[in-house]
Amino acid sequence: MLEVCLHKDMIEAGCDEAGRGCLAGPVFAAAVILPNDFNEPLINDSKLLTHKQREKLREVIEHYAVDWAVAMVSNQEIDEINILNASILAMHRAIESLKKKRPQHLLIDGNRFKPYSDIPHTCIVKGDSKFLPIAAASILAKTHRDEFMTRISKEYPYYQWEVNKGYPTKKHREGIAKNGISPYHRKSFKLL
């Protein structure tokens, strides 16, 4: 059973990103503040859920969250500042985009983060399978990014992004070998 919070007396936002290991597209991040009595047993690390489950849970999270936001950092920015810094920047942008509540503490998935403003944070390795707000953020980041990749796949059908979402699959690499790269590819990544 995932925990709802680390500090019961604080407004906590869970943060996670999606798309770090992709060859193309932006990295997305989400910040989610859940009510303390939130209970949805299906919510877990987005990688452990099916597409259909993620889409259903996205609606639940967006409806019941106290506040939520999703942000992205483009492939051009990733090439300039590297993927780790881009992932952290995407989380900062998501936190910044929260409109209803200002978090008093941040729960960050993973082991690396740069402080955001004056808000204290706790990094939690595999946090998306331990804390509901991080799991919820992982679901929002993943579903919003998948939606974006499916949309741009219509412009560049030969990479099959509607299926691989920009990850380095055999078909994606074959598309690059045959057609070259698109404006969405990360040039600082090993593409072939």
Distance between the termini: 41 Å
Strand order of the largest sheet: 3-2-1-4-5
Q: Biggest sheet, in brief? A: 5 strands, mixed
What is the number of domains?
Answer: 1
SSE series: EEHEHHEEHHH
CATH homology group: Ribonuclease H-like superfamily/Ribonuclease H
Architecture (CATH level 2) name: 2-Layer Sandwich
Helix content: 25-40%
State the helix count.
6
- Would you count the extended β strands for me? 5
Summarize model confidence as the mean pLDDT. Answer: 97
- The outline comes out as globular
What does this structure look like?
The structure is a single chain. The chain is an alpha/beta fold. The protein has a single domain (12-148), classed as Nucleotidyltransferase, domain 5 (2-Layer Sandwich), CATH 3.30.420.10. Helix content is 37%, strand content 16%. It has six helices and five strands; from the N terminus they run ββαβααββααα. It has a five-stranded mixed sheet, with helices on both faces. Helix 2 (75-81) packs across helix 3 (83-96). It is globular and about 55 Å long. The chain starts with 11 loop residues before the first strand and ends in a 13-residue tail after the last helix.
What's the SSE blueprint?
Blueprint: E1 12-18, E2 27-33, H1 51-64, E3 67-73, H2 75-81, H3 83-96, E4 105-109, E5 121-124, H4 132-153, H5 161-164, H6 170-179
Parallel strand pairs: 1-4, 4-5
Antiparallel strand pairs: 1-2, 2-3
Helix pairs in contact: 1-4, 2-3
